[in-house]
Amino acid sequence: MGSKPVIAVSHLGCEKNRVDTEHMLGLLAQAGYEVSDNEDLADYVIVNTCSFIQSAREESVRTLLGIAEEDKERIRSLLDLWWKWYCKIQDDRPLDAQVLDLWFMSLAYHLLSRRAIVITGCLAQHYQSELLEELEEAVALVGTGDYHKIVNVIERAETGERVKEVTPEPTYIADETTPRYRTTEGVAYLRIAEGCDYRCAFCIIPHLRGKQRSRSIESIVAEAKQLAAEGVQELILISQITTNYGLDIYGEPRLAELLRALGQVDIPWIRMHYAYPTGLTPAVIAAIQETPNILPYLDLPLQHSHPEVLRAMNRPWQGQVNDRIIEQIKVALPDAVMRTTFIVGFPGETDAHFEHLLQFVQRHTFDHVGVFTFSREEGTPAFNLPNQLPQAVMDARRDALMQVQQPISLERNQQEVGKVVDVFVEQENPATGELIGRSARFSPDVDGLVYLKGAATPGTLVLARIDAADVYDLYGHVATAADLFKGEPLTV
């Protein structure tokens, strides 16, 4: 072990958290700390937590408690094993040998108990006081707007200080000059803005992440070029509301200009997440149409379809435009892949409201749909709304909506059969030789996969013929010369 502690990270939550994780690791590596993938060998385990919904909080808490309990169990096991061994042979050993054994036991105890926990991310921002009080193994707490201070935090923790570094309203956003230790290969997330100025009734993000703050187009393009030089094949633009990019610094949204500027960067695939349909202006649609490396993949967080529910969610602008805007998008971008998410069980959602949502999903035939049950978040307006629905009702509605979506997803996937498409190969199954990757219609972690037969190098784009499909995934083979000359149009 070197002169500085070894650092490992347990990453939880969304891709925004992932970017924070990569910047923390980059700053630590730059400062000379050893970064390890093995938490067991680390002196400090940074747990970058999520607190967006109840299930995410529970996962974060389970991870924290699991690390703490694992350390205690390792120590108990070591002491128990040593004590049984010591008691068995102590009478046969001289006193100096027994003293040496005790010294080694003390050293082992020290080494095993030294692993400390640093809590970062949304849970740290949300529950500042409680975490340090409840988890004695935690030596530091770092908020969402303070991850760039991670080196100083570790240095202070090394002196024995129990550190709390949480800015009440986050304002920081990293740029192209901030070191980054990437945890993904071939794919990179590029944060174009942070925070949110909307106040949706169910959402705690503005409290956890602060107000919207965009980076300049020049800064974003500079980082994109850095990532291209590292061999990135797919760039995913992320923020809380991507279609509002630039409003805070330019006085108006500048997403169209950003997309066109990124069109000059040598990265084959660039896709957007979190595009509000009302922000898909003619200028943005034209930029998608006219910029070859911008994928026509639209991640639309609609949340619901009924105007009354959307009004209660504090999204009233959306209720009257969903149908019209989606139809406009289909006309302007007929090959667009559309993904959306919905919340079922929002307080006051009636059977009629839910039926409206079912019909909406059937009518618009989205490629991918994610469904969440309402999560009651303390500190949000929806927390105290009347007519809270039982979890059983919410679960049933989620299942019913997914049952409606599944045949739609199957049909959309089946339309790919027979096509020759670009596939980004991400890994190879060592046991079977099967290649696993994604076509342009699938975003990482949230959509399906493409399974291929044939030979290709992970981290590259290959042409593949799609032979079969199921509800979520596609199956095919690396395209041969015969496939390429059968006359079907090449698509991405």
Write the layout of secondary structure elements.
Blueprint: E1 6-11, H1 15-30, E2 34-35, E3 44-49, H2 54-89, H3 95-113, E4 116-121, H4 122-126, H5 128-134, E5 138-142, H6 150-158, E6 163-165, E7 187-191, E8 193-194, H7 205-209, E9 213-214, H8 217-229, E10 234-238, H9 247-250, H10 255-262, E11 269-272, H11 282-290, E12 297-303, H12 307-312, H13 316-319, H14 322-332, E13 337-344, H15 351-364, E14 368-373, H16 391-414, E15 420-428, E16 435-439, E17 450-453, E18 460-469, E19 474-478, H17 481-484, E20 490-491
Parallel strand pairs: 1-2, 1-3, 3-4, 4-5, 5-6, 7-10, 10-11, 12-13, 13-14, 15-20, 17-19
Antiparallel strand pairs: 8-9, 15-16, 15-18, 16-17, 18-19
How do you describe this structure in short?
The protein has helices at 15-30, 54-89, 95-113, 122-126, 128-134, 150-158, 205-209, 217-229, 247-250, 255-262, 282-290, 307-312, 316-319, 322-332, 351-364, 391-414, 481-484; strands spanning 6-11, 34-35, 44-49, 116-121, 138-142, 163-165, 187-191, 193-194, 213-214, 234-238, 269-272, 297-303, 337-344, 368-373, 420-428, 435-439, 450-453, 460-469, 474-478, 490-491.
